[in-house]
Backbone:
C-alpha cells in the first residue's frame, strides 16, 4: 500500500492519520487545496510555517510536516504577526475558522488586514462552532438552527470576505469546498501576494450544521453549497432580498499596497545605525 | 490504476458524488471499520484527479499505468 499513497501524503504526518475530522468534513478538502496551491506556486514547502488558533479547522497544521504553532483561541493572527516580523523571509500560512477569526479574534483580523502584514490567511467558514457542540457563530445564516438557537438564528451574518476587504486586506477571495480548483488558485495567488491575503472557504459541517438544519449527509451538504453559490458578477444585479442566504464567491479585491514589514525596514534603515542585512551596528564596521 | 487506502476511508461518498464519469460505486459490504468503501471502475476513469482533491481523508491515489 505504501507505494500507492495519495499524492499529497508526502506533506502529511502519516503517524497521526486518519485525522480527527468527521466523515465528509470540509477541512480535509481544504487541506488538499493547500498542498495543491503550494505545488502550483513557486513557494518552497520547507520555508512554510503554519499558525492556527482553536477549532476544528485549527487542527490542520498539526497534520502538516512543517513548523507549526497551535495557539490560543482567536490569537493565531497575533502570533503569526510576531513570527513574520521576527523572520520576514518565512512564508506564514494562518489556518483559522469562522468563530476563531471573526468572533474571538475579530479585532486581530481587522487590524492585521489594516496593517497589511504579509500573511496568507485561510478561513474555513462552516457557519457554526463545530468543535464545542454546535453553537451559533457570527456567520450562521439567518434562520439556521443550532444548539444555542433552537428556534432559528435571528442575527444578520457576517460576510467575512467583505469585512477583510473593508479592513484593508490586499487580496481577498471567497469560494466553497465544492470548488477545490478555484480554492487552490486563490491560495496560490494569496501565497504570491506580498501583503495580507485572505481566502475564505465555505465548508460543510455535516455533524453539527447539517444535523441541526436537516442536511445530514456530506454529499447533501455539498449540493446545498453548490445550489446557494453565486458569483460576484451575478450578485451585481441582484437585490438584497435575493442575495439573502447566498454565498457570493469570487475574488473580492486584488490591489497590492505597501507591506508592514517592508515599511518597518524602511524606517529602521532610515533612522537606525544597525545594518538590516548584517545586523551589525554601522559604528563598529571596519572601513 | 486507482488505489483506495482502506485504513483512511471514512465512507463519506464525496468521491461517488463528485466524479464526473461515475467511476465509484459504494460497496455493499462493510469493511472491518464499518465503512462502505468506494469501488472504482478503472475503465471509466479519465484521470481528472478531482476525487483526489475532493477526498477529505486522502484515500484515493490515481496513477498512470
Residues:
Amino acid at each position: 500500500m505504501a507505494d500507492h499513497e495519495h499524492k499529497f501524503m508526502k506533506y502529511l504526518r502519516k503517524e497521526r492519520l486518519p485525522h480527527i475530522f468527521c466523515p465528509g468534513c470540509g477541512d480535509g478538502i481544504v487541506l488538499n487545496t493547500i498542498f495543491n496551491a503550494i505545488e502550483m506556486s513557486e513557494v518552497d514547502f520547507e520555508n512554510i510555517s503554519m499558525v492556527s488558533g482553536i477549532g476544528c479547522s485549527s487542527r490542520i497544521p498539526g497534520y502538516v510536516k512543517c513548523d507549526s504553532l497551535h495557539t490560543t483561541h482567536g490569537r493565531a493572527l497575533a502570533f503569526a504577526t510576531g513570527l513574520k516580523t521576527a523572520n520576514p523571509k518565512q512564508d506564514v500560512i494562518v489556518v483559522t475558522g469562522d468563530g476563531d477569526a471573526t468572533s474571538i479574534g475579530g479585532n486581530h483580523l481587522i487590524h492585521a488586514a489594516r496593517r497589511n502584514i504579509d500573511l496568507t490567511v485561510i478561513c474555513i467558514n462552516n457557519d457554526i462552532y463545530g468543535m464545542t457542540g454546535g453553537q451559533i457563530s457570527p456567520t450562521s445564516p439567518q434562520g439556521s438552527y443550532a444548539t444555542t438557537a433552537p428556534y432559528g438564528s435571528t442575527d444578520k451574518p457576517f460576510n467575512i470576505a467583505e469585512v477583510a476587504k473593508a479592513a484593508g486586506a490586499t487580496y481577498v477571495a471567497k469560494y466553497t469546498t465544492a470548488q477545490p480548483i478555484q480554492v487552490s488558485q486563490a491560495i496560490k495567488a494569496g501565497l504570491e501576494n506580498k501583503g495580507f491575503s485572505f481566502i475564505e472557504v465555505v465548508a460543510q459541517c455535516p455533524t453539527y450544521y447539517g444535523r441541526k438544519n436537516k442536511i445530514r449527509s456530506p454529499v447533501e451538504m455539498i449540493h446545498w453549497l453548490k445550489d446557494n453559490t453565486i458569483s460576484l458578477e451575478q450578485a451585481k444585479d441582484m437585490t438584497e432580498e435575493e442575495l439573502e442566504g447566498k454565498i457570493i464567491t469570487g475574488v473580492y479585491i486584488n490591489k497590492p499596497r505597501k507591506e508592514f514589514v517592508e515599511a518597518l525596514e524602511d524606517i529602521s534603515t532610515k533612522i537606525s545605525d544597525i545594518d538590516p542585512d548584517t545586523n551589525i551596528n554601522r559604528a563598529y564596521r571596519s572601513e | 490504476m486507482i488505489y483506495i487506502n482502506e485504513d483512511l476511508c471514512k465512507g463519506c461518498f464525496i468521491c461517488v458524488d463528485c466524479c464526473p464519469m461515475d467511476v465509484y460505486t459504494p460497496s455493499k459490504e462493510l469493511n472491518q471499520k464499518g465503512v462502505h468503501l468506494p469501488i472504482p471502475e478503472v475503465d471509466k476513469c479519465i484521470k481528472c484527479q478531482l476525487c483526489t482533491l475532493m477526498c477529505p481523508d486522502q484515500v484515493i491515489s490515481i496513477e498512470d499505468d
User: Anything to note?
Assistant: Chain A has eleven helices and ten strands. Residues 26-40 of chain A form the longest helix (15 residues).
